[in-house]
Amino acid sequence: MQATPHPAQRIRIVLVGTQHPGNIGAAARAMKTMGLARLALVAPQRFPHADAEAMAAGAADVLEGAERHDDLAAAVADCGLVLGCTARDRRIALEQQAPREAAARAVEAAGEAIEVALVFGRERTGLENAELQLCHAAVHIPADPGYSSLNLAAAVQVLAYELRLALLARAGTVAAGAAPRAEPPASHAEMEGFFAQLAETLDAIDFHKGRTPEAAMHKLRRLFLRCRPDAREVRLLRGVLADAQRMARLADGRGE
Ligand code: SAH
């Protein structure tokens, strides 16, 4: 039950001023293995090129579908979120994000029908400050500070992998390879109905023993909301609570 188009289709990888065509091919391969297909090239130095095709291997379709632009502004003109990947800290006023946070933010935005770009710079000099100014945040892979500059395609692979995990999490799979969940998460109203019954049950079984119920309920709410149970699971939990409530009434001597 995925929205159309899939959020991955709203996420593009933008390579700016790439010098080595082999890196473009390797980036395309890195993308395709992680379910990403939208590649945009800003003023590549040599492209198309046999080295790009060789390094792309089975991802030739990603290369063939690549957009070409003269500058970064044109490549991201329709984007509502632009994240610039940098090998080092720059002294510019830009929010910094770790790859995992950036991927979560990108997938969330894409899920809200916002076009997203992840931008990567030139092998030798990275992104220019003027290019970074076009970005909403800078993403830095926390590499060894003594040598923090990854190969361009390797950096694309790290971000593509994080995007993959975030996309899988969003699709409700627990881990790569797990079957997608059959049922959507329970609605807000279903969760609130469950929490109300949980609160009643805790009272009925004298769970709080004179303590205020708020602290325990707060933690339990957080726990169950984190699990994102589906409607069927909520019904099962409510069945368990109903039996606990019935037993509490019996124990009270009030019977059914
Ligand atoms: N010497 C350049 C390195 C460029 S590496 C510089 O200092 O900027 C090419 C591109 O790969 C970078 O522009 C960036 O987009 C990406 N990259 C490399 N290492 C990275 C890292 N540690 N974190 C985020 N992006 C990185």
UniProtKB/TrEMBL annotation:
<keyword id="KW-0963">Cytoplasm</keyword>
<dbReference type="InterPro" id="IPR004384">
    <property type="entry name" value="RNA_MeTrfase_TrmJ/LasT"/>
</dbReference>
<dbReference type="Pfam" id="PF00588">
    <property type="entry name" value="SpoU_methylase"/>
</dbReference>
<feature type="domain" description="tRNA/rRNA methyltransferase SpoU type">
    <location>
        <begin position="11"/>
        <end position="161"/>
    </location>
</feature>
<dbReference type="InterPro" id="IPR001537">
    <property type="entry name" value="SpoU_MeTrfase"/>
</dbReference>
<keyword id="KW-0819">tRNA processing</keyword>
<keyword id="KW-0808">Transferase</keyword>
<protein>
    <recommendedName>
        <fullName>tRNA (cytidine/uridine-2'-O-)-methyltransferase TrmJ</fullName>
        <ecNumber>2.1.1.200</ecNumber>
    </recommendedName>
</protein>
<comment type="subunit">
    <text>Homodimer.</text>
</comment>
<comment type="similarity">
    <text>Belongs to the class IV-like SAM-binding methyltransferase superfamily. RNA methyltransferase TrmH family.</text>
</comment>
<dbReference type="InterPro" id="IPR029026">
    <property type="entry name" value="tRNA_m1G_MTases_N"/>
</dbReference>
<keyword id="KW-0489">Methyltransferase</keyword>
<dbReference type="InterPro" id="IPR029028">
    <property type="entry name" value="Alpha/beta_knot_MTases"/>
</dbReference>
<dbReference type="GO" id="GO:0032259">
    <property type="term" value="P:methylation"/>
</dbReference>
<comment type="function">
    <text>Catalyzes the formation of 2'O-methylated cytidine (Cm32) or 2'O-methylated uridine (Um32) at position 32 in tRNA.</text>
</comment>
<keyword id="KW-0949">S-adenosyl-L-methionine</keyword>
<dbReference type="GO" id="GO:0008168">
    <property type="term" value="F:methyltransferase activity"/>
</dbReference>
